[in-house]
Amino acid sequence: MRQLQIRVPQGCGQQVVKIAQDYDASNLIQFEAKDPADPVDVVFLHVSNRRVEGLLEALESIENLAVTLIPRGVMPLHPPIAGAPDQVTEVQPLSPIEIFLGGLQSVGSWRGFLGYAALAGVVVWIGLFTNSNFLLIAAMMIAPFAGPAMNVALATARGDKNLLKRSLLRYFSALAVLIAVTACLSLIMQQDMTTPFMVENSQISSVAILLPLAAGASGALNLAQSERSSLVAGASVGMLVAASLAPPAGIIGMSIPLGRWDMIVNGLFLLVLQLFGINVSAAIMFRVFGVRARGARYDRGTRKLFPISLGLTTVGLVALLILQFSDAPNFQRPSQAQRINADIKEVVANSNLAEFVEGNVRFAQPNISDQNTLLVVVYVQSQEGVDLSTEEIRDRLTGAIQAHILQEDFNVIPLVSVTVLETPDFLENSR
Length: 431
Fold this sequence. Notes:
431 residues, alpha+beta, Alpha-Beta Plaits, three-stranded mixed sheet, 16 helices, 14% strand
């Protein structure tokens, strides 16, 4: 429920009360008051979240209408007494006008906004440089990307060209600041090689699209939910949005001084993929919750802009996905490595030479041009009853694994190392 304070010219208070009753408002209070100029009527009322915008739209016909909307959930209790439990458990999503205004309020001043972007760049750089997971998480908590991301989606759902331009400007300004800060720190600290975390976070999985889709939907859902019906803090949702954007932006900045164009391309691909994915899912979610081009206290939306913006974003997203899956393994290396590891386990099992213990499959840094080098380290245990030496088992498995990888046309050069582990003697004797 929301509490509204409505001020109208004297004599119009009863009209407000009548309209409010049509919207099932409760605990109405009307009284006469005086503002600095003229006498007025003031009405206090409580109305359910989903009916706020409809009520405001119905009141627009009253001249000199002034409304104060309290953006906090309240629990109005009214007769009958036995109905109190039902009255307080009727928690509903916010009205479209509150979703829209809440998104706008999430945007702070330019100075603070860019300051947080710069600080996030410092923490991202430290995390990637020192291979520290917790610092990357800390950077995601202070990176100010959630506000612009949600406002871009709101502008798409509303069809608001002005808001879309302002939000995109803030979006790319923050990204540019973060990239510039990480690039400058790499120059100042004379970084001359990539770190394992940079390599790991620059690689693109075939399921990378799922993160921005989930981030956009959860961000929109958080803005649409009443605070008493949401079990997830807004900071956590903002962190999820930042998780989609901060690491790729940091990798781009750190790779520029190193001249690692492969990592820059991967970072840019990830960044654009995240931007499109977040906007598609969040804009659709906002429309599901009733955000439209026109509404109470809002009339500058263009109806045709929503399908145009969403269509262009969707086309861009589909184009990126086509590029990702047509350029194997460059844009799906972690997924390819997982699939190859599973295939290796099957090759070992079918060989009847040894038992699979563990496999480590990863792509090496592209130091050799025009070659996707795949490093494969496999540990196996010699199988009981196999009358072959350790060297023979190793050579046969190495050949079988390399042949399978090449036959499956993964577009890689496999460098395979097989280690055959022997069972301890005391276990052999106990058998």
